[in-house]
């Protein structure tokens, strides 16, 4: 790593500023910017209609995900307003598809989510290499509406479709030695042209402790907004860990390995003083170059306070009992 050029943080506030201004312009053009709460609610309704048309045009083959879908509001769902589909699918971090927020949607067509094979191996009794559609057929798809907080201090609310990682891990039966889980993104510079340049040490690697991986909030997403996952969001399979910074959620995963030792993870290797292994959302631990105390919810005007564990502390704080969360950031 040491002979590589210094790595920039994943993106910048500048782009989100632009998006914020665009949203404000939209509302102003719609005559709603200075309106009442009712008018703002009306604006959200218009946006939703607009998103729906965009969605139908944008993901023409995205029919329903195979199999039954559980849509009931789960115990962990937030009922905060959902970030519009257009923003969720056009404001992305996926460095293998470019460094600007708009790049992944623009370059999404390079990535072919079928055929696709996923390997689950390592410290398990029943390692498996399966076709993605076979894997899909093992689970009932659930909808989970989660907050997502990027380490760059912006956030979204996203309705994911997928299954708990615990369901997959139970199937392969972890051995008593398994303590960590590694997630590996596809390595293919033709499908992920950003891998032609050594911006990061490819493939993108992420990891969790096994108890974090088995937590019921930890989710494997195959869709969002009831449709198949767009490539820019990590098709066909991506990790979602809602109490951690967004970079923990590795995209376009081909391998899930259980290990005895803590795995190397991409951002931690690139900038160990800035991105820790745990990366739990923590307003009290400042990034060396910016505060994590507040965040901008995409589409909002005002910043809002960032919550410890991104608001999931009641569910997950016990996982870190007795740990110094400043040291283990
Ligand atoms: N393979 C891969 N996964 C990745 C990234 C990436 O660059 N490459 N970016 C991460 C970051 S920084 C964030 S915030 C989320 C963004 O997910 P979204 O674009 O679906 O909102 O993906 C994460 N997963
Ligand atoms: Mo991020």
What does this entry look like structurally?
This is Protein-methionine-sulfoxide reductase catalytic subunit MsrP. Keywords: Membrane, Metal-binding, Molybdenum, Oxidoreductase, Signal, Transmembrane, Transmembrane helix. InterPro entries: MsrP (IPR022867), OxRdtase_Mopterin-bd_dom (IPR000572), OxRdtase_Mopterin-bd_sf (IPR036374). The chain has 9 helices and 13 strands. By secondary structure, the chain is α+β, with helices and mostly antiparallel strands. It has a single domain (11-320), classed as Oxidoreductase, molybdopterin-binding domain (Sulfite Oxidase, Chain A, domain 2, Alpha-Beta Complex). Strands 1, 4, 5, 8, 9, 10, 12 and 13 form an 8-stranded mixed sheet that branches. Strands 3-2-11-6-7 form a 5-stranded mixed sheet. Strand 4 (141-149) and strand 5 (154-164) form a beta hairpin. The longest helix is centred in the N-terminal third of the chain and has 22 residues, at 37-58. The structure holds the ligand Nc1nc2c(c(=O)[nH]1)N[C@H]1C(S)=C(S)[C@@H](COP(=O)(O)O)O[C@H]1N2 and molybdenum atom (MO). Molybdenum atom binds next to loops.
Instruction: Report the order of strands and helices.
Output: HHEHHEEHEEHEEHEEEEHEEH
Portion of residues within helices: 10-25%
- Which structural class is indicated by helix and strand composition? alpha+beta
Q: Give the name of the CATH architecture.
A: Alpha-Beta Complex
């Amino acid at each position: 790593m040491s002979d590589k050029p210094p790595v920039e943080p994943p993106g910048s506030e500048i782009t989100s500023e632009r998006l914020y201004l665009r949203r404000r312009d939209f509302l102003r053009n719609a005559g709603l910017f200075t309106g009442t709460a009712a008018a703002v609610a009306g604006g959200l309704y218009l946006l939703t209609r607009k998103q729906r048309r965009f969605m139908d045009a944008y993901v023409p083959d995205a029919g329903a995900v195979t199999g039954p879908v559980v849509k009931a509001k789960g115990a962990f769902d937030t009922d905060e307003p959902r970030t519009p589909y257009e923003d969720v699918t056009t404001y992305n971090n996926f460095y293998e598809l470019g460094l600007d927020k708009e790049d992944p949607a623009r370059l999404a067509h390079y990535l072919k989510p079928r055929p696709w094979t996923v390997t689950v191996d390592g410290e398990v009794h029943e390692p498996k290499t399966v076709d993605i559609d076979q894997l899909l057929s093992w689970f009932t798809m659930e909808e989970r509406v989660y907050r997502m907080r990027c380490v760059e201090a912006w956030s979204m609310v996203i309705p994911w479709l997928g299954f708990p990682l615990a369901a997959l891990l139970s199937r392969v039966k972890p051995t008593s030695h398994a303590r960590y889980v590694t997630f590996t993104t596809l390595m293919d510079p033709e499908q992920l042209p950003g891998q032609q340049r050594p911006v990061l040490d490819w493939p993108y690697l992420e990891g969790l402790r096994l108890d974090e991986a088995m937590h019921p909030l930890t989710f494997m997403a195959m869709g969002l907004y009831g449709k198949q996952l767009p490539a820019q969001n990590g098709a066909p399979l991506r990790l979602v860990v809602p109490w951690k910074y967004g970079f923990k959620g590795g995209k376009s995963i081909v391998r899930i390995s259980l290990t005895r030792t803590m795995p190397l993870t991409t951002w931690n290797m690139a900038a160990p003083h800035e991105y820790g292994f745990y990366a739990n959302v923590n307003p009290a631990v400042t990034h060396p170059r910016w505060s994590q105390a507040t965040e901008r919810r995409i589409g909002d005007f005002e910043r809002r306070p960032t919550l410890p564990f991104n608001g999931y502390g009641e569910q997950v704080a016990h996982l870190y009992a007795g740990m110094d969360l400043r040291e283990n950031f």
